[in-house]
Amino acid sequence: ERVYRVTASAVGRGTGLFVLAFKDQSEARRIDRMRADFIANASHELRTPLASIAGFVETLRGPARNDPNARDQFLQIMQNQTGRMARLIDDLLSLSRLEMKPYLKPGVRVDLRQTVDAVIASLGPLAGETGVVVERDFGDGSFEVHGDRDELFQVFQNLLENACKYGQSGGRVQVTMRRVGQGSEAELEVTVRDFGPGIPEEHIPRVTERFYRVDVETSRAQKGTGLGLSIVKHILTRHGARLSIRSKLGEGSAFTVHFPIA
Ligand code: ADP
């Protein structure tokens, strides 16, 4: 569906001739609609835990006032819900920061080895909680790209956290780094692979959409906002890089970041 704005202007005086100009508004409309959808989704995602907290506060002030067991249980739920809201707000802030500065500052060299190692080191508690062992296999040579260190840290943090959370049953996560291709086709590839349940094929193209979560028990049971991979995609686009996803049910998933070597 395309939307045009049409303006008519007279040619000269009393000529009876008009020029009609058609301006394609479809893209602007599409962006407006996306923004409205986004706000609606974000509000809904924040409202759900908030409603739950409000409900428990009411119960604690009323029927459960003198029941210490119920009180502990409800406080625990309320704490989980505030955690969920905090994660969502952090992700929303990351997205809005990315949108406020749509272009990268040029010229900063980032060593991907150091970045990924720093992410692995920061995973300590999550790796401990899930019992996942992270294996690294970095090829020889330079793995430097131009970009923003914090943003690239966030890319690999999101990918590795997902691999540990969703791929937990596989027991290990592999990170590999290599150079592939020649000349203008040359790329640096960083792959984060897990051996968990995998992603059903029809969901693979959609997991990078905002708020999209695959509705299988394993993923619903995990803490998340559905924004992690959309942030990854956003950051990679700014870096001229892209994400590819391969996954097989029962075997696991591989998320590969491709950086052009220019
Ligand atoms: P979040 O993890 O906050 O839900 P993401 O955008 O990072 O959001 O991921 C979107 C969805 O993609 C997840 O909810 C999960 O269903 C699926 N997913 C992501 N990574 C994996 C993985 N390694 N294995 C299986 N499913 C995954």
TrEMBL record:
Under which main EC class is this enzyme filed? transferase
Q: Indicate the segments forming the Histidine kinase domain, all copies.
A: 41-262
Provide any one GO MF term from the record.
protein histidine kinase activity
The EC code for this enzyme is 2.7.13.3
Instruction: Report the catalytic activity.
Output: ATP + protein L-histidine = ADP + protein N-phospho-L-histidine
Q: Which terms are listed as keywords in the entry?
A: Kinase, Membrane, Phosphoprotein, Transferase, Transmembrane, Transmembrane helix, Two-component regulatory system
Listed name of the protein: histidine kinase
Which species is listed as the source? Aminobacter ciceronei
